[in-house]
Every structure is written in C-alpha cells, then in structure tokens.
C-alpha cells in the first residue's frame, strides 16, 4: 500500500470509528435532585432597565431596534437588537432618539414595557 491509500483509508475510517463509539442516551436515568432549574423548558421572565439609541421603528411588525449599552441585570453586553413593543409606544419614536426603557425578557423574546425619550 502506498501512503496515499493509507491516508485516504484513515480519512474514511476515523469518522466511522468515532460514530460507532457514541451510544444513544435514550432511557438513561438522570437524577436532577439539587439542580436549581425549571423543568418546563421555559425560563422565567426577567426585567431590566437600559438606555440606548433607536435604530429602526417598524410599526407593521410591532418592533423597535435599539442599540443599547450593557444590561447588567440580564448579563447582556452592549448590542443592537429588536424588541417587541405596543403600537402606542412606537408612534412617539423615531430613528436617532436617545431612550431609557424597561424590558421584559423571556428566553429569546424581549418586550419593551416602558420607553421614554431622554
């Protein structure tokens, strides 16, 4: 066998050997005693206050995009992200407005509960 054949054989056999080593976890007993986690797979809503700058207002989808500073209460770094908001909250906002806002965040859903221009 030449070196090329050995190399090709290795490249094909290693993934197969790795897959054969993995065992399914179905039916494995797991003890969750002492673990402080909610078992319904939905995290509790968290609230926080932040400041930022309006980047986009979309009244049709009911969202506002805000570039905000770090949100320590939620462990978020500074970033730009979209939030759900009520139509009456969106009507008074425009791109470039500096705002302070309260949010309720649950999993990947974040909603503005209060927003005021600075």
From TrEMBL:
Residues 29-49 are annotated as: Disordered. InterPro entries: CusF_Ec, CusF_sf. Residues 1-19 form the signal peptide. The keyword Signal applies. Residues 29-43 have a biased composition (Basic and acidic residues). Keywords: Signal. This is Heat-shock protein HtpX. It comes from Stutzerimonas nosocomialis. The lineage of its organism: Bacteria, Pseudomonadati, Pseudomonadota, Gammaproteobacteria, Pseudomonadales.
């Amino acid at each position: 066998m030449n070196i090329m054949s050995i190399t090709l054989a290795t490249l094909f056999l290693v993934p197969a050997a790795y897959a054969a080593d993995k065992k399914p976890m179905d039916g494995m007993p797991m003890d969750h005693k002492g673990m402080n986690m909610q078992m319904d797979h939905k995290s509790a809503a968290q609230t926080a206050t932040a400041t930022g700058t309006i980047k986009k207002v979309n009244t049709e989808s009911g969202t506002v995009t805000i570039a905000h500073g770090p949100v320590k209460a939620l462990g978020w770094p500074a970033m730009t992200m979209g939030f759900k908001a009520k139509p009456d909250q969106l009507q008074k906002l425009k791109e470039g407005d500096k705002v302070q806002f309260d949010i309720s965040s649950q999993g990947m859903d974040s909603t503005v509960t209060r927003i005021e221009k600075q």
